[in-house]
Amino acid sequence: MYDVLTGEEITQKHIDHIAETIAGDWKKLANKLPLKEGGVAKCNTAIKQIQTQNPGDLQQQCVDMLTEWMTSAENATKSHLCKCLRDMGKKKTANEVEQM
Asked: Whose CA is closest to 97, among 75, 84, 77, 82?
């Protein structure tokens, strides 16, 4: 998706990098973004579906979550993604994504 604030788009390279560095925390990021608009219940339902699709593969679950967020959320921008990464203590990952 094209980021109107920075003029940069979120690419597969960004998604893959985030998945590699925060795979174990992908559900925390999903709630910060949020993955689904409409409250915690909808977000938790989406998380469960992603977990069911790729059981045991945290990196792929993170990729799937970010891909779904990019296609469905109005706020799917690189700047919002980096802000959420920083909010969850992943400043290094946010800085790396901004530099890509």
From this structure: 82
CA-based Rg of the chain, rounded to a whole angstrom?
A: 12
Do the Cβ atoms of 68 and 47 come closer than 8 Å? no
The pTM assigned to this predicted structure is 0.83
Residues 6+ apart with CB under 8 A from 96: 17, 21
Residue type at position 93: T
Mark out the alpha helices in the chain (DSSP H runs). 12-22, 26-32, 40-53, 58-72, 78-87, 91-99
Q: Tell me the longest C-alpha to C-alpha distance in the chain.
A: 36
pLDDT by position in tens, the chain (length 100)? 444 444 468 889 999 999 999 989 999 998 888 766 665 667 778 889 999 998 989 999 999 999 988 887 777 888 889 999 999 999 999 999 998 8
Residue 9: helix, strand or coil by DSSP? strand
